[in-house]
From TrEMBL:
It is found in: Cytoplasm. GO terms for cellular component: cytoplasm. The gene is cutC. This is PF03932 family protein CutC. Keywords: Cytoplasm.
Length: 231
């Protein structure tokens, strides 16, 4: 399963046309990806039949959210249900650098039947292994964990990612690992040589010149999919 970041209807159209399996819908990618507007998500879902995962992130200051931000997130999840996305992408931590379990439990309650991906807020925790184990306790409610394994590029965390993928294989009713950050057409074979994995997430690597202002390229999607689906 190859998930591609999209920001507008053209991105969504090209992602489907060129063979992506799913899209993560965000705004403000220069800020790391924030919640898309109502108009954007509505038109993106109209432009593509790909399953859509909608980012729920009201600001880019940190992954710590106060009561005002939580109200906004609840309203945005209501919007996600209204427009018909497959799920939401969320991550939140406490000021002390732990997983915000109280907010996570609220997100799980608010999302209803929507799928939930917990995103790379995990990498911002003070102890990634301890935080990973906390998330495992919510494994029946979290569909996927989007992670680099704790490094800027996932390529530098292959041993940890391999271990986490093995955890998921041993517990198929828990969340699956979605490998992201630093995944590119030119290194996907290296990832696969170690991980032999099925689920990857890409952003600029799907595009011309690795530039979010440029179009998604068929050639890039083809190379990624060929390696992901290689026997």
């Amino acid at each position: 399963m190859l998930e591609v970041i999209v920001q507008n209807p053209r991105d969504a159209y090209l992602a489907e046309k060129y063979g992506a399996n799913r899209m993560e819908v965000v705004s403000a990618i220069s800020e790391g990806g924030l919640t898309p507007s109502y108009g954007a998500i509505k038109e993106i879902v109209r432009a593509s039949k790909l399953p859509a995962m909608m980012m729920i992130r009201p600001h880019s200051f940190s992954f710590v959210y106060d009561d005002a931000a939580r109200i906004v997130m609840e309203r945005d999840i209501e919007l996600a249900k209204e427009v018909g996305v497959q799920g939401i992408v969320y991550g939140g931590i406490t000021a002390d650098g732990d997983i915000d379990q109280a907010l996570l439990e609220k997100i799980i309650e608010w999302k209803g039947d929507l799928d939930l991906t917990f995103h790379r807020a995990l990498e911002a925790t003070k102890d990634i292994e301890a935080s990973y184990q906390v998330l495992r306790t919510y494994g029946k409610d979290i569909k996927q964990l989007l992670t680099s394994g704790g490094t800027a590029s996932a390529l530098d965390s292959l041993p940890r990612l391999k271990r986490w993928i093995q955890d998921s294989e041993a517990q198929p009713d828990s969340f699956q690992i979605l490998v992201g950050s630093g995944v590119k057409p030119e290194n996907i074979a290296t990832f696969q040589a170690t991980l032999n994995h099925t689920d990857y997430h890409v952003g600029s690597a799907a595009r011309e010149a690795n530039d979010f202002s440029k179009d998604i390229l068929k050639e890039n999607i083809d190379i990624l999919q060929q390696q992901i689906n290689k026997d």
